[in-house]
Amino acid sequence: MATPNGLHRYPSQMEESLLELTQSLSVPLWYEFDLGEGYANDKRRLLEETYVLNLDTQKFPKRLSVRFTRSIVTNSPSSLCLP
After folding, report:
1. Domain coordinates in residue numbering, the chain
2. Is pTM beyond 0.85 here?
3. b/e per residue, 40-53, with b = 16+ CB within 10 A?
4. pLDDT in the model for residue 48
């Protein structure tokens, strides 16, 4: 079989070359897959942490307003009872 550069190769040599090429490509592709999976995991973790933070910030103003209302209620009668 003739190749573009004019050298003749046998089918078995072409199979070996193809196998070497496939093996050399599989490492970068596998590495890229790992990076993609790692990115997806980081993104998922970040979204979960953001969701928890949102829940915490939604709870905080309610607690603050409850405390504030209680202080008004407890302080109001005493200020009204003053002569």
Report:
1. 4-75
2. no
3. eeeeeeeeeeeeee
4. 74
